[in-house]
Amino acid sequence: MRLPALVLCLSLTACPATPTADGRTPALVLRSYEVPPGSGQRLRSVLKEVLWFGSEGKDANTYVGRVDVSPDGQLLVLAPASVHEGVDALVASVKARGLKEPETVTLTYWVVTGTPGAEQSQPMPEVIQPALTEVTKAEGPLGFTLAEQLSVSSLPGERGEMNGRDTSVDQFVSAVGEALMADLRLERLGQRIRTRVRLSPGKVVVLASSGAPEKNSGDASKRVFFIVKAATSAGDGR
Hints:
Layout: H1 3-14, E1 28-33, H2 40-51, E2 52-56, E3 60-63, E4 66-69, E5 75-80, H3 81-97, E6 105-116, H4 129-139, E7 142-154, E8 159-163, E9 167-176, E10 179-188, E11 191-199, E12 204-211, E13 223-232
Antiparallel strand pairs: 1-5, 2-3, 4-5, 6-7, 6-13, 8-9, 9-10, 10-11, 12-13
Helix pairs in contact: 1-2, 1-3
């Protein structure tokens, strides 16, 4: 799906939504669009980003229009008539390509500590073992300990949040072709990670590494690794 060109087209047609020379704002028109099964949430996510024009103040946001998905899967758009020209083009492209998205996306996170030169104190989950092998190639011998594991499921284009024992997760995942674009924010014991990554379902990725927050003098040399794996309802991410 060639989103950049379509987004540009939609952005240009959205411009007339600003007040006209006489100070009037164009009337909003509500239209429903028949879209391929399973594509409504992805279209909603794309349109919501395009229709956002910025923020006013701390909590206020300015949108050219609004978009949602009806219970029967139709795309609902409330916007000036000029904006619907771009929506028509986007929906037509999706119909032509037969785009389909997963019903849910699940991200599993592992927080692993590594102690230089230490013996392996516990077996690690088999799924992340290849990633840890690569870590030792870069960092040298480490004894790994699983500090925490979390799993968060959400619809594509929707936010998912979870507070674990020591780690909190805030994720926003969109389907882009066969891949997933993930905006992630993790916090653990004062450490904060905010990143955007492209994930392939079934692949394990080391998001970040850092020194361990010191609780005692023995923690200074430890390393902390944040690892993630994506899976979808379509059966990817074995």
